[in-house]
Fold this protein.
Amino acid sequence: MARDLWSWAEREIAPHTAAEEDDVDGACRRIVQQLGDGDWLRHCVPASHGGAFEHLDVRALCICREMLSQFSGLADFSFAMQGLGAGPIALYGSDELKDKYLPGVRDGKRIAAFALSEPEAGSDVGAMRTEARHDGTGWRIFGEKTFISNAGIADHYVVFARLTNEGERAFGAFVVDADNPGLTVTERIRTLAPHPLGTLDFTNCRVADDAMVGPRGKGLRVALGTLDVFRSTVAAAAVGFARRALREAVQHVKTRRVFGKPLADHQLTRGKIAEMAVAVDASALLVYRAAWTRDTVADRVTREAAMAKLYATESAQRVIDDAVQLLGGRGVMAGATVEKLYREIRALRIYEGTSEIQRLVIAEAVLNG
Protein backbone atom coordinates (compact mmCIF):
# COMPACT_ATOMS: atom_id res chain seq x y z
CA MET A 1 0.00 0.00 0.00
CA ALA A 2 2.64 2.52 1.05
CA ARG A 3 4.76 1.81 -2.04
CA ASP A 4 1.77 2.12 -4.37
CA LEU A 5 0.68 5.41 -2.81
CA TRP A 6 4.23 6.76 -3.01
CA SER A 7 4.41 5.97 -6.74
CA TRP A 8 0.97 7.48 -7.32
CA ALA A 9 1.83 10.67 -5.43
CA GLU A 10 5.10 11.06 -7.35
CA ARG A 11 3.13 10.89 -10.57
CA GLU A 12 -0.08 12.75 -9.69
CA ILE A 13 0.72 15.16 -6.84
CA ALA A 14 4.39 16.14 -7.02
CA PRO A 15 4.23 17.87 -10.46
CA HIS A 16 1.63 20.37 -9.20
CA THR A 17 2.99 21.38 -5.79
CA ALA A 18 4.81 24.52 -6.93
CA ALA A 19 1.55 26.21 -7.96
CA GLU A 20 -0.69 25.00 -5.11
CA GLU A 21 -0.59 28.23 -3.10
CA ASP A 22 -1.62 30.32 -6.13
CA ASP A 23 -5.14 28.86 -5.98
CA VAL A 24 -5.65 26.94 -2.76
CA ASP A 25 -9.36 26.27 -3.26
CA GLY A 26 -8.82 25.02 -6.79
CA ALA A 27 -5.87 22.89 -5.73
CA CYS A 28 -7.90 21.22 -2.98
CA ARG A 29 -10.80 20.48 -5.31
CA ARG A 30 -8.37 18.98 -7.83
CA ILE A 31 -6.58 16.90 -5.19
CA VAL A 32 -9.81 15.52 -3.72
CA GLN A 33 -10.90 14.43 -7.18
CA GLN A 34 -7.47 12.91 -7.85
CA LEU A 35 -7.61 11.02 -4.55
CA GLY A 36 -11.04 9.72 -5.48
CA ASP A 37 -9.99 8.73 -8.98
CA GLY A 38 -6.88 7.05 -7.57
CA ASP A 39 -9.07 4.99 -5.19
CA TRP A 40 -7.32 6.34 -2.08
CA LEU A 41 -10.45 7.80 -0.47
CA ARG A 42 -11.74 4.27 0.00
CA HIS A 43 -9.81 4.38 3.27
CA CYS A 44 -12.12 7.16 4.54
CA VAL A 45 -15.33 5.12 4.40
CA PRO A 46 -16.34 1.58 5.48
CA ALA A 47 -16.59 -1.35 3.10
CA SER A 48 -20.39 -1.15 3.13
CA HIS A 49 -20.06 2.04 1.07
CA GLY A 50 -17.08 1.24 -1.11
CA GLY A 51 -14.38 1.40 1.52
CA ALA A 52 -11.23 -0.70 1.83
CA PHE A 53 -12.06 -2.20 5.25
CA GLU A 54 -15.17 -3.21 7.15
CA HIS A 55 -14.46 -0.42 9.62
CA LEU A 56 -12.21 2.64 9.40
CA ASP A 57 -8.66 1.31 9.68
CA VAL A 58 -6.49 3.78 11.58
CA ARG A 59 -3.23 2.21 10.45
CA ALA A 60 -4.21 2.65 6.81
CA LEU A 61 -5.27 6.25 7.45
CA CYS A 62 -1.92 6.91 9.12
CA ILE A 63 0.04 5.39 6.24
CA CYS A 64 -1.86 7.52 3.74
CA ARG A 65 -1.19 10.73 5.65
CA GLU A 66 2.48 9.91 6.26
CA MET A 67 3.00 9.28 2.54
CA LEU A 68 0.99 12.24 1.24
CA SER A 69 2.53 14.75 3.66
CA GLN A 70 5.97 14.04 2.24
CA PHE A 71 4.80 15.40 -1.11
CA SER A 72 2.26 18.10 -0.32
CA GLY A 73 0.72 19.66 2.75
CA LEU A 74 -2.46 20.33 0.79
CA ALA A 75 -2.68 16.72 -0.38
CA ASP A 76 -2.40 15.55 3.21
CA PHE A 77 -4.96 18.16 4.29
CA SER A 78 -7.42 17.19 1.56
CA PHE A 79 -7.23 13.49 2.41
CA ALA A 80 -7.50 14.18 6.14
CA MET A 81 -10.60 16.35 5.79
CA GLN A 82 -12.38 13.77 3.66
CA GLY A 83 -11.81 11.38 6.54
CA LEU A 84 -12.68 13.76 9.37
CA GLY A 85 -15.70 15.25 7.60
CA ALA A 86 -17.09 11.80 6.81
CA GLY A 87 -15.92 10.16 10.04
CA PRO A 88 -18.93 11.02 12.24
CA ILE A 89 -21.28 9.66 9.56
CA ALA A 90 -19.21 6.52 9.04
CA LEU A 91 -18.88 5.86 12.78
CA TYR A 92 -22.25 7.01 14.14
CA GLY A 93 -24.58 7.88 11.26
CA SER A 94 -27.78 6.19 10.20
CA ASP A 95 -27.86 3.98 7.14
CA GLU A 96 -29.72 6.75 5.32
CA LEU A 97 -26.99 9.32 6.06
CA LYS A 98 -24.29 6.85 5.04
CA ASP A 99 -26.07 6.14 1.78
CA LYS A 100 -26.52 9.82 1.02
CA TYR A 101 -23.03 11.14 1.82
CA LEU A 102 -20.34 8.46 1.94
CA PRO A 103 -20.27 7.35 -1.72
CA GLY A 104 -19.63 10.93 -2.86
CA VAL A 105 -16.84 11.36 -0.33
CA ARG A 106 -15.25 8.11 -1.44
CA ASP A 107 -15.37 9.07 -5.13
CA GLY A 108 -14.00 12.59 -4.55
CA LYS A 109 -17.28 14.07 -5.78
CA ARG A 110 -18.25 15.50 -2.39
CA ILE A 111 -15.95 17.60 -0.20
CA ALA A 112 -16.50 17.08 3.53
CA ALA A 113 -15.97 19.29 6.58
CA PHE A 114 -16.09 19.01 10.38
CA ALA A 115 -17.45 22.09 12.20
CA LEU A 116 -16.68 22.02 15.91
CA SER A 117 -14.51 25.02 16.91
CA GLU A 118 -16.02 28.36 17.90
CA PRO A 119 -14.60 31.77 18.81
CA GLU A 120 -14.93 30.94 22.53
CA ALA A 121 -14.79 27.15 22.33
CA GLY A 122 -11.65 25.57 20.94
CA SER A 123 -10.02 23.05 23.24
CA ASP A 124 -12.97 23.39 25.65
CA VAL A 125 -15.59 21.96 23.30
CA GLY A 126 -18.17 21.80 26.07
CA ALA A 127 -18.23 25.61 26.08
CA MET A 128 -19.74 25.82 22.59
CA ARG A 129 -22.59 28.30 22.22
CA THR A 130 -24.03 27.25 18.88
CA GLU A 131 -27.56 26.07 19.60
CA ALA A 132 -30.02 23.74 17.92
CA ARG A 133 -33.69 24.27 18.76
CA HIS A 134 -36.27 21.62 17.98
CA ASP A 135 -39.40 23.01 16.35
CA GLY A 136 -41.47 19.85 16.22
CA THR A 137 -40.49 18.73 12.71
CA GLY A 138 -36.79 19.45 12.68
CA TRP A 139 -34.00 21.59 14.11
CA ARG A 140 -33.06 25.24 13.70
CA ILE A 141 -29.37 26.02 14.24
CA PHE A 142 -28.10 29.39 15.48
CA GLY A 143 -24.47 30.31 16.14
CA GLU A 144 -20.99 30.65 14.73
CA LYS A 145 -18.16 28.24 13.97
CA THR A 146 -14.64 29.39 13.16
CA PHE A 147 -11.30 27.97 12.00
CA ILE A 148 -13.32 25.44 10.01
CA SER A 149 -11.28 23.56 7.43
CA ASN A 150 -12.80 23.45 3.93
CA ALA A 151 -15.07 26.39 4.77
CA GLY A 152 -16.24 27.75 1.44
CA ILE A 153 -15.49 24.66 -0.65
CA ALA A 154 -17.21 21.88 1.32
CA ASP A 155 -20.39 20.28 0.06
CA HIS A 156 -21.47 19.37 3.58
CA TYR A 157 -20.48 20.14 7.17
CA VAL A 158 -20.93 17.98 10.26
CA VAL A 159 -21.98 20.66 12.75
CA PHE A 160 -22.01 20.31 16.53
CA ALA A 161 -24.44 22.30 18.66
CA ARG A 162 -25.90 22.52 22.14
CA LEU A 163 -29.51 21.27 22.25
CA THR A 164 -31.68 24.03 23.71
CA ASN A 165 -33.74 23.12 26.81
CA GLU A 166 -32.46 19.54 26.88
CA GLY A 167 -29.92 19.71 29.67
CA GLU A 168 -26.50 21.22 30.29
CA ARG A 169 -24.60 18.38 28.59
CA ALA A 170 -27.01 17.69 25.75
CA PHE A 171 -25.40 18.23 22.36
CA GLY A 172 -26.19 17.19 18.85
CA ALA A 173 -24.27 16.52 15.64
CA PHE A 174 -25.97 17.43 12.37
CA VAL A 175 -25.11 17.07 8.69
CA VAL A 176 -25.72 20.46 7.05
CA ASP A 177 -25.47 20.82 3.30
CA ALA A 178 -23.43 23.80 2.13
CA ASP A 179 -26.38 25.27 0.20
CA ASN A 180 -28.72 25.03 3.17
CA PRO A 181 -30.51 28.40 3.73
CA GLY A 182 -29.24 30.05 6.89
CA LEU A 183 -25.66 28.82 6.50
CA THR A 184 -23.20 31.49 5.38
CA VAL A 185 -19.42 31.58 5.07
CA THR A 186 -18.72 34.99 6.59
CA GLU A 187 -14.92 35.04 6.53
CA ARG A 188 -11.98 33.27 4.96
CA ILE A 189 -8.99 32.96 7.30
CA ARG A 190 -5.40 33.15 6.08
CA THR A 191 -2.76 31.09 7.88
CA LEU A 192 1.00 30.48 7.65
CA ALA A 193 0.46 27.52 5.36
CA PRO A 194 -2.55 28.38 3.15
CA HIS A 195 -5.52 26.03 3.53
CA PRO A 196 -9.24 26.58 2.90
CA LEU A 197 -10.22 27.86 6.33
CA GLY A 198 -13.05 30.10 7.45
CA THR A 199 -15.92 31.15 9.70
CA LEU A 200 -19.48 29.88 9.37
CA ASP A 201 -22.63 31.68 10.52
CA PHE A 202 -25.85 29.82 11.25
CA THR A 203 -28.98 31.95 11.38
CA ASN A 204 -32.21 29.99 11.56
CA CYS A 205 -30.53 27.20 9.59
CA ARG A 206 -33.10 24.41 9.43
CA VAL A 207 -32.32 20.71 9.15
CA ALA A 208 -34.62 17.72 9.39
CA ASP A 209 -34.66 15.28 12.29
CA ASP A 210 -32.90 12.67 10.19
CA ALA A 211 -29.89 14.98 9.73
CA MET A 212 -28.79 14.22 13.29
CA VAL A 213 -25.72 11.99 13.60
CA GLY A 214 -25.76 9.56 16.50
CA PRO A 215 -28.12 9.50 19.49
CA ARG A 216 -29.97 12.66 20.47
CA GLY A 217 -28.04 14.53 23.13
CA LYS A 218 -24.79 12.60 22.52
CA GLY A 219 -23.12 15.00 20.10
CA LEU A 220 -20.01 15.37 22.23
CA ARG A 221 -19.55 11.61 22.18
CA VAL A 222 -19.73 11.74 18.38
CA ALA A 223 -17.18 14.58 18.25
CA LEU A 224 -14.71 13.10 20.71
CA GLY A 225 -15.08 9.57 19.37
CA THR A 226 -14.31 10.80 15.86
CA LEU A 227 -11.31 12.79 17.03
CA ASP A 228 -10.09 9.74 18.94
CA VAL A 229 -9.87 7.89 15.62
CA PHE A 230 -8.27 10.69 13.62
CA ARG A 231 -5.89 12.22 16.18
CA SER A 232 -3.30 9.54 15.51
CA THR A 233 -3.38 10.48 11.83
CA VAL A 234 -2.35 14.05 12.68
CA ALA A 235 0.74 12.57 14.27
CA ALA A 236 1.31 10.49 11.15
CA ALA A 237 1.27 13.63 9.02
CA ALA A 238 3.87 15.14 11.35
CA VAL A 239 6.04 12.06 10.83
CA GLY A 240 5.75 12.55 7.06
CA PHE A 241 6.73 16.21 7.27
CA ALA A 242 9.70 15.32 9.46
CA ARG A 243 10.83 12.49 7.16
CA ARG A 244 10.82 14.85 4.18
CA ALA A 245 12.80 17.45 6.15
CA LEU A 246 15.36 14.85 7.19
CA ARG A 247 15.71 13.66 3.62
CA GLU A 248 16.24 17.22 2.37
CA ALA A 249 18.84 17.83 5.09
CA VAL A 250 20.74 14.62 4.34
CA GLN A 251 20.86 15.40 0.64
CA HIS A 252 22.15 18.91 1.35
CA VAL A 253 24.86 18.04 3.87
CA LYS A 254 26.27 15.37 1.56
CA THR A 255 26.83 17.87 -1.26
CA ARG A 256 27.49 21.18 0.54
CA ARG A 257 31.20 21.69 1.18
CA VAL A 258 32.37 23.71 4.18
CA PHE A 259 36.01 24.28 5.13
CA GLY A 260 37.21 21.93 2.44
CA LYS A 261 34.98 18.94 3.09
CA PRO A 262 31.29 17.97 2.88
CA LEU A 263 29.13 19.37 5.65
CA ALA A 264 28.20 15.77 6.46
CA ASP A 265 31.78 15.05 7.52
CA HIS A 266 31.63 17.57 10.36
CA GLN A 267 30.98 16.04 13.76
CA LEU A 268 28.30 18.56 14.79
CA THR A 269 26.37 17.82 11.61
CA ARG A 270 26.49 14.09 12.22
CA GLY A 271 25.22 14.55 15.76
CA LYS A 272 22.31 16.64 14.53
CA ILE A 273 21.38 14.16 11.80
CA ALA A 274 21.41 11.35 14.35
CA GLU A 275 19.09 13.27 16.68
CA MET A 276 16.70 14.00 13.82
CA ALA A 277 16.61 10.37 12.71
CA VAL A 278 15.90 9.10 16.24
CA ALA A 279 13.09 11.64 16.66
CA VAL A 280 11.45 10.56 13.41
CA ASP A 281 11.57 6.86 14.18
CA ALA A 282 10.44 7.28 17.79
CA SER A 283 7.47 9.32 16.58
CA ALA A 284 6.55 6.68 14.03
CA LEU A 285 6.59 3.96 16.70
CA LEU A 286 4.15 5.94 18.87
CA VAL A 287 1.89 6.63 15.88
CA TYR A 288 1.63 3.04 14.77
CA ARG A 289 1.27 1.75 18.32
CA ALA A 290 -1.78 3.99 18.70
CA ALA A 291 -3.13 2.89 15.32
CA TRP A 292 -2.59 -0.82 16.04
CA THR A 293 -4.21 -0.49 19.46
CA ARG A 294 -7.30 1.21 17.99
CA ASP A 295 -7.60 -1.31 15.17
CA THR A 296 -7.11 -4.49 17.18
CA VAL A 297 -7.47 -3.97 20.93
CA ALA A 298 -9.58 -1.02 22.10
CA ASP A 299 -12.47 1.14 20.92
CA ARG A 300 -10.88 4.22 22.50
CA VAL A 301 -7.18 5.10 22.45
CA THR A 302 -7.31 8.53 24.02
CA ARG A 303 -4.04 8.05 25.93
CA GLU A 304 -2.10 6.45 23.09
CA ALA A 305 -3.33 8.92 20.48
CA ALA A 306 -2.54 11.88 22.73
CA MET A 307 1.00 10.59 23.27
CA ALA A 308 1.50 10.09 19.55
CA LYS A 309 0.18 13.52 18.62
CA LEU A 310 2.14 15.34 21.32
CA TYR A 311 5.46 13.66 20.66
CA ALA A 312 5.25 13.50 16.87
CA THR A 313 4.19 17.11 16.32
CA GLU A 314 6.64 18.57 18.83
CA SER A 315 9.47 16.41 17.47
CA ALA A 316 8.64 17.27 13.86
CA GLN A 317 8.84 20.97 14.71
CA ARG A 318 12.38 20.45 16.03
CA VAL A 319 13.42 18.22 13.12
CA ILE A 320 12.20 20.70 10.53
CA ASP A 321 13.82 23.60 12.36
CA ASP A 322 17.10 21.67 12.39
CA ALA A 323 16.74 21.03 8.66
CA VAL A 324 16.27 24.75 8.02
CA GLN A 325 19.39 25.43 10.10
CA LEU A 326 21.47 22.86 8.24
CA LEU A 327 20.41 24.29 4.87
CA GLY A 328 21.36 27.78 6.00
CA GLY A 329 20.31 30.50 3.58
CA ARG A 330 18.69 27.97 1.28
CA GLY A 331 16.44 26.89 4.14
CA VAL A 332 14.75 30.25 4.53
CA MET A 333 14.20 31.00 0.86
CA ALA A 334 10.49 31.41 0.07
CA GLY A 335 9.26 28.33 -1.74
CA ALA A 336 12.06 26.04 -0.59
CA THR A 337 10.84 22.63 0.54
CA VAL A 338 11.97 23.02 4.13
CA GLU A 339 10.53 26.55 4.28
CA LYS A 340 7.14 25.16 3.29
CA LEU A 341 7.49 22.36 5.83
CA TYR A 342 8.36 24.93 8.51
CA ARG A 343 5.05 26.67 7.87
CA GLU A 344 3.06 23.44 7.58
CA ILE A 345 4.19 21.88 10.84
CA ARG A 346 3.33 24.78 13.13
CA ALA A 347 -0.42 24.31 12.90
CA LEU A 348 -0.24 20.61 13.74
CA ARG A 349 0.75 21.47 17.29
CA ILE A 350 -2.58 23.30 17.66
CA TYR A 351 -5.41 21.69 15.72
CA GLU A 352 -7.30 18.61 16.90
CA GLY A 353 -6.04 19.35 20.40
CA THR A 354 -3.11 21.56 21.35
CA SER A 355 0.08 20.13 22.82
CA GLU A 356 -0.96 21.53 26.19
CA ILE A 357 -4.29 19.70 26.05
CA GLN A 358 -2.52 16.46 25.07
CA ARG A 359 -0.32 16.78 28.15
CA LEU A 360 -3.40 17.14 30.36
CA VAL A 361 -5.04 14.12 28.72
CA ILE A 362 -1.92 12.00 29.17
CA ALA A 363 -1.45 13.03 32.80
CA GLU A 364 -5.10 12.26 33.56
CA ALA A 365 -4.74 8.79 32.03
CA VAL A 366 -1.52 8.03 33.85
CA LEU A 367 -2.71 9.28 37.24
CA ASN A 368 -6.09 7.56 37.07
CA GLY A 369 -5.30 4.58 34.83
User: Anything to note?
Assistant: Residues 193 and 343 are 5 Å apart (CA to CA). The longest strand covers residues 138-149. The chain has a mean pLDDT of 96.
